[in-house]
Structure formats: C-alpha cells, structure tokens
C-alpha cells in the first residue's frame, strides 16, 4: 500500500500543494479537486459553496491484505472525496 501511495503522490498530485484549508474546501466544492484528506467536519463548508456536491468517503488503506485491513473510525478520520 505504501508503494501505491508514493506513486499517487509522485504522479497525481500538485507539485506545490500548499493551499489553505479554506481554499482546499472551495476547490473540492467547485470540482477543481477530486480528493481531499479531511473529515466529515468539512461537509457543511463544502455544502455552503455547492449544495449539490456529490460527496463520498473512503478509508485510507493500511495494507494490501484485505484480511488485515482495519478501518480507523471516528467522527473526523475519513478521507473526503468529491
């Protein structure tokens, strides 16, 4: 899994990802960003900008072995995707 995350980072992310929290949520709401590693707490801000935003959530992978995969759960530990 770590190799896959490195590949994603190296090949599919911005070279200068420095944006503010506000800019990141605005970009997701406007469709300029596809994935945002935030929690569900960001939903109200995203909905203020785009009430029709099609949001989904996924866990961050910890292993390639499905039997060993664990979900870290809580109120704000989910990957936000739009």
UniProtKB/TrEMBL annotation:
Quote the protein name from its UniProt record. Answer: ABC transporter substrate-binding protein
